[in-house]
Every structure is written in structure tokens, then in C-alpha cells.
Amino acid sequence: MVMVNEKVAHPQDSHQPTEKPTIHCFKCGDPCKGQVLRVQTRHFHLKCFTCKVCGCDLAKGGFFMKNSDYLCTLDYQRLYGTQCQGCGEFVEGEVVTALGKTYHPKCFVCSICKRPFPAGDRVTFNGKDCLCEHCAQPKSSSPKEIVSSNNCAGCGRDIKNGQALLALERQWHLGCFKCKACGKVLTGEYISKDGAPFCEQDYQNLFGVKCEDCGKFITGKVLE
């Protein structure tokens, strides 16, 4: 968004009048004289270029435009910004999106060692936490190789660049780890059935056991 500080001149020679279109302030509608601000094709009095929400002065700071309204950075982030799932601050610039959640690159870290995931490394999602390759290794003296293929278990394509997810002993593109029934990307805990992931609601609808008394699905131990 370009903001230009201009000065509006008015003809002084009454003997040779020059017809010039009068510039009006976009906000108040009054004619602009002296110093004005031009934002794209709109003009404002300096005092009229303010945040739509809080009314603070936008002439000396950054601003955003949304639905033809001008907002200060704080109000724009509060109303329309995306928060990092790691630190809770608003995300700007480079971001990491994993399992439907957005992070600052430095905030997308292994749940155990708390180190950021290097670009291209596999990410193991165990249904609750995301783990780096080192922390996801079996705690034994001779760990076995779990994944033998570089193809995504969801779409079947090769996983070349970017983050990969390791779940159900297979690799997935982050956007391909979806519930087999509804197709939504799984962003939290999941339940597996015959090697396929399901969200809890679809798993219960398809395979769950209902209580004969209340009719609700049963989780945990069942007395037969």
C-alpha cells in the first residue's frame, strides 16, 4: 500500500483562472487544502487518516486495508491475523503449516527435545505430539528402519522437499494425513483401523460401541 504526502496548490492569478478539479477528503468529504495524504487513488486530510477501529493516527505508522477500511497493525492482527500455535503471537512473513496449524519456523519444535525441525526432516506424529527423527527412534540398541519407501502413504507421490510426517509406520505429506472417512486433515489425536487413520467422530460412527442404556459411544473399558 503506497502512501504519499502531497501539497495541494490553488491558482493565485485571477486574470488567468485555471479550472482544476477540487480534491476532496475520502473520509470527511471536505475539500483538501495544504498538506494531504494520497493512498492509491484516495486523498485524506492528515487528521482524517485514522484507524477504522481504534481511531489512532495512521499517517506516521504502518497500516492495513481490509474491505476498503484502513486499520492499524494491532487491530488488523487482532481481527484478521493468524496466531502461532507455539507462542501465541501473530504470524507474519515466513510460516510453517503442519496438521492444519500455523507456526513461526522457530516455534515448530519437537515435543521432547524442543528443537526446531530442520527443513526436509521427517516429523513423527504419534497422535498427540510431533517428534523429530532422533526422538522418534525406538529406545533399543538395534533400532529397525520403520520406513522403507519415500512415497506418501496418502497420495502415493514421492516426498522430496519440505516436512514429512511419520505415522502408522508410514510417511505422509503433512496435508495428506487425513481421516479415511471424512477426508479432513487430522490436526490432533486420531484412531487407526486396519492401518488407516480416522478422526474420533467417524471412527465411533463406523466402528464404535454404544451403551445400551444411554445410547452414547463407549470409550475405555467395556464390561461384557
From TrEMBL:
Where do transmembrane segments lie in this chain? none
Q: What Gene Ontology cellular component terms go with this record?
A: stress fiber
Q: Which Pfam family, just one, is annotated for this protein?
A: LIM
What biological-process GO terms show up in the record?
Answer: cilium assembly; lamellipodium assembly
Q: Where is the LIM zinc-binding domain?
A: 23-82, 83-142, 150-209
List, in alphabetical order, the Gene Ontology terms for molecular function in this entry: actin filament binding; metal ion binding
What superkingdom does the record give?
A: Eukaryota
Keyword vocabulary terms for this entry: LIM domain, Metal-binding, Zinc
PANTHER family for this protein: ACTIN-BINDING LIM PROTEIN, ACTIN-BINDING LIM PROTEIN 1
- What is the protein's given name? LIM zinc-binding domain-containing protein
* Organism in which the protein naturally occurs: Scyliorhinus torazame
